Amino acid sequence: MEPFTNDRLQLPRNMIENSMFEEEPDVVDLAKEPCLHPLEPDEVEYEPRGSRLLVRGLGEHELDEDEEDYESSAKLLGMSFMNRSSGLRNSAAGYRQNSDGTCPAPSARTIGVCVCIILLAVAIILAIYFLPRCTFTKEGCHKNNRPTEPIQPIATNGKLFPWAQIRLPTAVTPVRYDLTLHPNLTSMTFRGSVTISLQALQATWNIILHSTGHNISRVTFMTAVSSQEKEVDVLEYPLHEQIAIVAPETLLEGHNYTLKIEYSANISSSYYGFYGISYRDESNEKKYFAATQFEPLAARSAFPCFDEPAFKATFVIRIKRDEQYTALSNMPKKSSVVLEDGLVQDEFFESVKMSTYLVAFIVGEMKNLSQDVNGTLVSIYAVPEKIGQVQHALETTVKLLDFYQSYFEIQYPLKKLDLVAIPDFEAGAMENWGLLTFREETLLYDANTSSVADRKLVTKVIAHELAHQWFGNLVTMQWWNDVWLNEGFATFMEYFSLEKIFGELSSYEDFLDARFKTMKKDSLNSSHPISSSSVESSEQIEEMFDSLSYFKGASLLLMLKTYLSEDIFQHAIILYLHNHSYTSIHSDDLWDSFNEFTNKTLDVKKMMRTWTLQKGFPLVTVQRKGKQILVQQERFCLNVKPEIQPSDASSLWHIPLSYITDGKNYSKHRSVSLLDKKSERHVFFFHRQRVYGTLLTWSRWVVGSRRAGVINLTEEVQWIKVNTNMTGYYIVHYADDNWEALIKQLKINPYVLSDKDRANLINNIFELAGLGKVSLQRAFDLIDYLRNETYTAPISEALFQTELIYNLLDKLGHVDLASRLVNKVFKLLQSQIQQQTWTDEGTPSTRELRSVLLDFACAHRLENCSAAALKLFFDWMASNGTQSLPTDVMTTVFKAGAKTEGGWSFLLSKYVSLGSEAEKNKILEALASSEDVRKLYWLMKKSLDGDLIRTQKLSFIIRTVARHFPGHLLAWDFVKENWSKLVQKFHLGSYTIQSIVAGSTHLFATKAHLSEVQAFFENQSEATFRLRCVQEALEVIQLNMQWVEKNLKTLTYWL
Ligand SMILES: [Zn+2]
């Protein structure tokens, strides 16, 4: 699934122990020095504890952690394990032996006491192990069961419900579903019948499966040997959305059975499940449309099923429809039959084996454009009046399908691939196998009104959903705790495929920007590991769909690919896909495939677990000492209570370091691998050639009582820049002299460093200023070189960072200071702004730069920008909107017009009547940027109603309103006032709710707002207050307060 939103995030910090540079005055103890950064918002947040990943051996061969790290380091370094430090060996030996090296002989009494204790302990363990798991089941205990809840579930009919857990038992597994549905789009109801072929994996009496919102009229049961149907009772337990069928006889292990359930239900009025919408066509006639969105937990609301991703089965689907509609499902249509009542019944071929959340069907009036690609019919569907906007999507899909089939060396397995633009859709898109669903704005492209950013969006979203056909559909995560396996991979492949086949779009700039934003969010204490063990409730599952699963997952894969080389990375994932096709897997299965390929010369699992099982990321501190470079790591974490060290202060990562220097011999990428330890900070390095291999140097630097890692250069250098092209997921801090050297280099000739490196330096220094590691003044000193910058990525990042500060000052009423800040930034970028023209000329990257610069200039009324924009707007208005405008600056032009009374009304009239979603989006952003709060309130209200402005746009409107001064308090009031409706429409924990909470609170920076936000969510439910997005919002407000407290005086003096 592709969420829809792209905003900004926030952060706190923490830090761990020692600095290795005791004499280094620049290293700040974060436990004392509050950190700071103004935070912008965007989505989500979370939770707990990183875990230590080392697997311990037993007995004589057990290693302590030091030894294990040494062993793996040695393996990594290609060294013999026997050559490790003798000092270490001695200390490990001392741990287990007497001083003479022998084990003492125990007395008989000691042995007796020990035996008693052991027997008692075993009895307690057995009791704990068996009792709770068997309490409510007739089947006995299943290996994978979770602990039972301390309540006795009672079904709706008052009888005991035979299963107490949220996860289903594994005694019975579905093999095939045969589903017939008859939706009525005017009454918004449907009737359904599902026949499920089952296999018993264990003897049991009960069949437990999911079902919610169904009025079940009849359930019958049949064994494979007797074809006689027996009507059976059904028990319902709505709290867990489960039903239980008590079989008339024991289900025997290995035997097959059939269950048939007839039911009726309402078509959903939310965006979840089997949902219905109405829209008006170009002649203003009301039309109806029904579609599905099952991920993650809504297949159960469309038909009774085993609704967990690991229960894969095949599906035969039949849809009864009125003649004027088209029905689509995952598979090609097998037959269409006209029934006696005039309805048409479409039957689709039996599907491949797949998870329930990937099942999909659509009924509506649509047209399509198709093309055959080596036996697969690719079709783009839209409502009839928008069929003219599908050509770009078709061409893009054909190229991407070809690329993926070749890259993965696995053919797309279905005979057809449909991509459908749905008139109202909450997410960005969804990867249902063979039937991809999209918002209209993420699939349709209109050459006259779509900007280069729109083109990129459509291309990226198609690339993402197509990648899911392999990552997610063919190979699926076992459970939602590993959703990053789906989303991280699809996101990574989205950028990777664009870079390969649409290189002109410079999508690397977007990926870089996404990594910056993701790390901002991941540095919060409310962050969470992307592979989390504590995911069970629907809210917890929803919350896993956040930007960390998507972008941190993708960032880690980028880091691994860069480290291993593109070739090895590709072959390892081919192996993974081949090994696990049509099954479901854990994260470790992915790493095992890498390890299988690397043949144990590198333990990818051990390395990558340090990134996926703990939250946050490392701060790497670098100091030059002549030809030696000292390096250490600690967690980069903002912290609202600096006096409290986080419990995982000793977090460690296996970091593939890379660097470049100004030296003659170091101008190319040099990769280094670093391993660290909790206690003594042993750091190992080796240069990497091609893969993960050749040891060039390994040494330690002893500073005081601690040891640090060292890179030995062959010559002295002026500067070193670590994390080349920011392919690594970490932030780098340098000693004073190196920062100064880098700043000097940027001023003399910035192009010695790549645009990615320049953007990376800007990002890092502002984030470090937030942490209190460097002064804000030094950060501004670094971006002083921007006068000579011509690339998009560094300018965009500088504008983002300074806008964060501006927004905070502005919302707190420090108008003069905010204005001085804008002037300072403007002076840096003045010549670039003056060079811009109001056209669509240039490469995609320069066109995007134009959008960013002119939007900045017009927003702050600089360089007569608004006058130029207004002239274009009034010309366009005089032509009744028929005169074409340059697409990349269209939003800026509309924003200028929306600030005028007549302009706003004219734009609204166009919004209602236009057919291009790309143009409508630009208008909507302009409408929501108005300075008239009555208009802003009206917009939000109308979007909640969903008629004039679709409710799918509401979170975007709220975020836009909240960003600007006139609306930032209003947006929060609106959220409070309509919270229950918002949760009903978008459901608790969803990406949309995350986005609304962050978007409406992220610019608060006062104690009064903190108390208010806290009190509001506390007064909702406990589940609401516990939401990570709520905890993140509170954390961000506190960090904003700290930032202001720390920096306001300095800024007043210095700006
Ligand atoms: Zn996705």
Question: What do these coordinates show?
Answer:
With 1055 residues, the chain is α+β, with helices and mostly antiparallel strands. Helix content is 40%, strand content 18%. The protein is built from 31 helices and 31 strands. The strands form eight sheets. The protein has an eight-stranded mixed beta sheet, with no helix packed on it. A five-stranded mixed beta sheet has the order 16-17-18-20-19, with helices on one face. A five-stranded mixed beta sheet has the order 28-29-24-23-31. Helix 8 (507-522) runs parallel beside helix 15, helix 17 (792-811) packs parallel to helix 19 and helix 18 runs antiparallel to helix 19 (844-859). The longest helix is centred in the first third of the chain and has 27 residues, at 108-134. The radius of gyration is 30 Å and the shape is globular. It starts with 64 loop residues before the first helix and ends with a helix. The model is unreliable at 6-107, 125-149 and 675-707 (pLDDT under 50). It binds zinc ion. Zinc ion (ZN) binds next to helix 6 and helix 7. Zinc ion binds at residues 1-2, 431, 464, 468, 487, 490.
